[in-house]
Amino acid sequence: MRAVGIARVCAAIAGAISLAAPARAEDTIKIGVILPISGGAAYVGQGIGDGVRLAVDQINAVGGIKGRKLEILLRDEMLRPDASVAAAKELITKDGVKFIIGPATSATSLAVSELAKTEHIVNISPSAKTEAITGSKLHEYIFQLAPTTDVDGVRSVGVLNKIGAKSVCFTGFDYAYTQDWFKAIKANMGAIQNAGEFLVPLNTTDYSTVIGQLIASSCDTVVGTMYGGGFIAFVKQAAPFGLFKTKKLLWGANTGDYAVAKALGPDFPEGVWAAASDIWYYEGSDAHAKYQAALAQLQGRKETDMWPITGYNAVNFLAAAIEKAGSDDPKAVRDALEGLTIDSPLGPLTVDAKTHRANSPEFYGQVNSVAGSPVKRMSPYELVK
Amino acid sequence: MLANPIVLFIQVMNALSLGMSLFVIAAGLTLIFGVLRIVNFAHGAFYMVGAYLAYTVVQTFGDTNLGFFLGVAGAGLGMGLIAFLIERFLLTRLYDKDPMLQLLLTFALVMILRDAVRMVWGSDQHSISTPPALSGAVNLGLTYYPTYMLFLLVLGPIVAFALWFGIERTRWGRIARAARLDREMLSALGVDVNLVYAAVFVVGSMLAAIGGALAAPRSAVDPGMDALVIIDCFIIVVIGGLGSLIGSFVGALILGFLTIFGSFYLQEWVIVASYAMMVFILILRPWGLFGQSDEVRH
Fold first, then answer.
1. Residues of chain B with pLDDT under 50
2. Beta bridge partners of A198
3. What is the number of structural domains in chain B?
4. Which domain holds residue B246?
5. E-assigned strands of chain A?
């Protein structure tokens, strides 16, 4: 009886899923997009997805690529390598996808890249930063747009020197991005002292121990990588202990973004040095102003976040490569991508033919209260290429 | 570093505070299991809904002391109402059926509530500030300690006492305990057992939601918060013994100390430590520290 009951439930679910699969137009170019849609990093997936949608809408509005429209097939990576690979497999075998954008994070992106390698699928990693993706795990079909951790490391040491750090302690989530970024900083920080490393498991909820260790440390600057909800929790738990009054902070993982600054509001610690792949208040170029206006319309708010530009650039690279290759054959598109240059909202962007890296520019700056701005934001800031 | 008495004192306080804030949530889970014999997978989702409800109330009334405590109360009441509807319209159909169906239902509730939260509040990160009266730090003689964490530390034992008193010393508690032992006999004696079940489920769910609202000033209010807390809750009730209030209290303290001191000595390996301890305790006492086997209970 029990077995029959479970079988019936399974059958019902399977039926519902097959009914839900939408009918698709015949001659579109399908792009598999794998992003975190549920869970604590859903805002990242939402952002990158918005960028993908904006680019696809713009390309389709002028007739697509050689008359063929682009079609997005969005799947949830759930921040889990196994779920990401399962989603990618389904996209490849069931939907016949030849191009995959995503997943968003270092661990999940590495997992899908392995599949792209064996299945010969063009895989553009828009936002993951670990240098392993196009370093030790480089293969013909993987392309990485975000600045890699070794590039980030050099840029970050520049900030450390600028703010006069003498001794640095490291803290963050224990995962690929943290380890690689810290390694790159340590390799480049010269005379600056390393006062210790205090890591916590990914998605910890209690930071008491690490906060105690940081306060007791002799370092004058804390370099950290908790992101999203983890950064919010860390900040709120550390503030009553006075951590931000005694030490300077340099934060990775794009803490200069709108999402966290908005959530924390006045609780965002004044003066954190951070980076962001895009900022809504940049007024350096017409291309950016145009892009930002279109994005603001799509997102329904003036203060757009930093993630969309990564998805936007990924689609535009892919479209340009398909156009250049004159076909949607993955091998031809891969060849076209090598050395390709596009006009991104932040200026010309090139995928290096050998390294498969674009090392996109990022904004670096100090997050402060700014008169007239409802949320804290980077001021001053600079665009680092 | 722990040789420094001040550092050691702060870490002990941290462990107590963490344990007590987890206890409030886990107590609801164990209460529901103790009486209804249902393992509520959706308890973490109730916690998340509580945090979001509190966020909305605080947004409405402002970041004030009044706003915050209205938020906590609103989280409890709002979730209590939702829990009442879930119990009356869904759970009540499954009490005498296959336990597998109850698991499926609570698991389905997790997914439904997750999507409902995303539909209502979006996928953005949110945050609630510490209420002004409880922000900053107090001088405990030895050192300063964050007021809000002290508040959580004191609140845990108060909740524990209130629950103990309610279950062991009141007429309602006696009826709830009787419902756990023999539902049919109690019904035959003229007690409205359905009402008892509904009341226990509502109170247990309110504890989850209040726990979520209270956790908000120390964490983010985001769509992933349920998955993290439910694991801690299950570890607590399993090592303490499913259905045992005192077991949850002790289990929460053990997990609190293990998390704080484990992350000091083991750093990122602390997650493994909590599972290893759970396995160890289950080998020694398969029903948890304060649990009883079904045979003993009857």
1. 298
2. A171
3. 1
4. 5-297
5. 29-35, 70-76, 99-101, 122-125, 142-144, 167-173, 193-200, 221-224, 248-251, 272-276, 341-344, 347-350, 362-368, 377-384
Per-residue confidence (pLDDT) for residue A10, from 0 to 100: 47
Question: What tens digit of pLDDT does each residue of B37-75 get?
Answer: 899 999 999 999 999 999 999 999 998 999 999 999 999
A-chain residues near B228 (CB < 8 A) = 203, 205
Are the beta carbons of A147 and A129 closer than 8 angstroms?
A: yes
Residue of chain B minimizing CA distance to A79: B224
Distance from CA of B104 to the nearest CA of A (A): 10
pLDDT of residue A211: 93
Residue B93 tokens read as 């159909």
Q: Is the predicted ipTM greater than 0.85, yes or no?
A: yes
- Domain of residue B71, CATH code: 1.10.3470
Peptide bond into A374 cis (omega under 30): no
Q: Which two tokens stand for residue A32?
A: 């598999």
Q: Is A295 exposed, middle or buried (0-12, 13-18, 19+ CB in 10 A)?
A: buried
Q: Region A92-112: what's the mean pLDDT?
A: 95
Task: Examine the pLDDT at A32 and tell me if it is beyond 70.
Answer: yes
Q: What distance in Å separates the CA atoms of residue A89 and residue A97, rounded to the nearest whole number? A: 9
CA distance A355 to A349: 14
User: What is the tens place of the pLDDT at every residue in A176-199?
Assistant: 889 999 999 999 999 999 999 999
- Measured between beta carbons, which residues in chain B are less than 8 angstroms from residue A176? none
CB contacts of B146 in chain A (<8 Å) are: 240-241
Domains for chain A: give ranges and CATH numbers: 24-146+297-354 (3.40.50.2300), 150-276+363-384 (3.40.50.2300)
